[in-house]
Amino acid sequence: MIPGPIELDPEVLRALARPQLGHLDPVVVRAFGQVLVQARETFLAPPARSPSWSPGSGTLAMEMAVANLIDPGERAVVVNSGYFSDRMRSILERLGARVDEVRAPLGEFPDLAAIDAALSASAAKLVAVTHVDTSTGGARPDRRRGAGGARARRPYRRRRRVLGRRRGAPPGRLGPSTCA
């Protein structure tokens, strides 16, 4: 639930009063093309890669991402920093993954040595890391201080980015990854 009532700009109210356009209308096609261009710029994606969009909640995007990356019985490591990591664990378990978690106290990020130990235990198909967990205020440490273990082992990294972006290597330079 969000606090309300919400004041809308008059331009937004005028746009909402117009008849709906179909998804193949030239206006919609042009607008969506611009969204894709801006998304490539934001995520530093090469022109050959096209971002995909989901007309649903963040949870839907999270599930769509991992449902296409992991099969029942495969191992996933969830670096748990709060509510959204708990949600990712639940999604992965529902999909039949064997989930191992590395947890930390509320508002903190799990110890990098513990993450490395979890990744060293056995091969993981997927590592899920919440970049910034707004529910707890937890943020992962700078990439330069660690997290090389995941890169060295080459599991598929799945991150959920919420409101924040830290300095360091941009997503397009980290190898295979997905953001929801």
Series of secondary-structure elements, N-terminal to C-terminal:
HHHEHEHEEEHEE
Uncertain runs are: 142-169
In CATH, the architecture of one domain is 3-Layer(aba) Sandwich
Radius of gyration, taken over Cα atoms and rounded to an integer in Å = 19 Å
- Give the proportion of residues in helices: 25-40%
The named CATH superfamily of one domain: Type I PLP-dependent aspartate aminotransferase-like (Major domain)
Number of strands: 7
Q: Please work out how many helical segments DSSP would assign.
A: 6
Detailed description of the structure:
This protein is of the alpha/beta class and 180 residues long. It has a domain at 58-179: 3-Layer(aba) Sandwich (Aspartate Aminotransferase, domain 2), CATH 3.40.640.10. Helices cover 36% and strands 15% of the residues. The chain has helices at residues 10-17, 26-43, 58-67, 83-94, 112-121, 148-153; strands spanning 75-79, 98-102, 126-130, 132-133, 138-139, 156-160, 177-179. The strands form two sheets. A five-stranded parallel β-sheet has the order 2-1-3-6-7, sandwiched between helices. Strand 1, helix 4 and strand 2 form a beta-alpha-beta unit. Helix 3 crosses helix 4. Residues 142-169 have low confidence and may be disordered.
What order do the helices and strands come in, and which of them pair?
Layout: H1 10-17, H2 26-43, H3 58-67, E1 75-79, H4 83-94, E2 98-102, H5 112-121, E3 126-130, E4 132-133, E5 138-139, H6 148-153, E6 156-160, E7 177-179
Parallel strand pairs: 1-2, 1-3, 3-6, 6-7
Antiparallel strand pairs: 4-5
Helix pairs in contact: 3-4
